[in-house]
Design goal:
The chain is α+β, with helices and mostly antiparallel strands. 19% of the residues are buried. Helices cover 27% and strands 21% of the residues. The protein has helices at 7-12, 26-39, 51-54, 67-70, 104-115, 131-144, and strands at residues 43-50, 74-81, 87-94, 120-124, 170-174, 184-188, 197-199. The protein folds into 2 domains: 23-148; 160-201, no CATH class. The longest helix has 14 residues, at 26-39. The chain has a 4-stranded mixed beta sheet, with helices on both faces. It has a 3-stranded antiparallel beta sheet with strand order 5-6-7.
Length: 201
């Protein structure tokens, strides 16, 4: 029976890999917590998914130059259906820039997801995220792909409800007129086509 390699000798031939101290940055971790609060168990939230694992290139021999655009690149978060693991949303953190500017890399990611019919939510990087702001960004992403995906929220009282009429996502609103101005409530995102309302006690 061969002798066991001494510990010192084993260290000398140790592979040159080490575990990173942090897998997610503080801004990524903060957003992940908000997404978990919003989604509950409706979606599986997968961080740092490689674009090459998510997309494939049609006619690869003709479009070989497109491979480098997605090679070794990832989307920050991918939301997948809890039952089928079918991708439902991509979420990408972006560095805040002026309102009318878009970084080429951010624009490519948006074009990539749009071409596949998958909503991509661009969220400005921050240490704190307001759930209502995040919901609005999800709405914008859905609108860009024609609203074909529905954002399903957890049904608990601390999360955003679904419309009791049409089942679509609801948005936090504030009454401007009427007997209770300033009162917050949830209104259907499809308003005025849908009059669904959920009161907030």
């Amino acid at each position: 029976m061969p002798e066991l390699m001494p510990a010192r000798a084993a260290l000398e031939v140790r592979l040159p890999y080490r575990l990173r101290e942090t897998f997610l940055s503080s801004t990524e971790l903060a957003l992940l917590r908000v997404l978990h609060e919003m989604m509950g168990d409706r979606y599986v939230i997968c961080p740092k998914i490689g674009l090459n694992d998510l997309f494939y290139i049609v006619r690869p021999n003709e479009n070989v130059h497109f491979f480098n655009k997605i090679f070794r690149k990832h989307v920050d978060f991918l939301l997948c259906d809890h039952q089928t693991m079918k991708p439902a949303f991509g979420v990408e953190l972006v560095k805040p820039i002026s309102k009318n500017e878009t970084r080429p890399s951010d624009q490519f990611m948006e074009d990539l997801f749009l071409s596949a019919g998958l909503p991509l939510v661009h969220i400005p990087s921050n240490d704190h995220y307001d759930p209502s702001d995040v919901v609005h960004l999800f709405q914008l992403a859905m609108a860009k792909v024609g609203g074909t995906s529905e954002l399903r929220m957890d049904g608990s009282g601390d999360s955003i409800p679904m419309c009791p009429i049409c089942g679509k996502m609801m948005v936090l609103r504030i009454r401007r007129e009427g007997p209770k101005p300033g009162q917050k409530y949830y209104g259907c995102m499809d308003n005025p086509h849908c009059a669904g309302v959920v009161a907030i006690d």
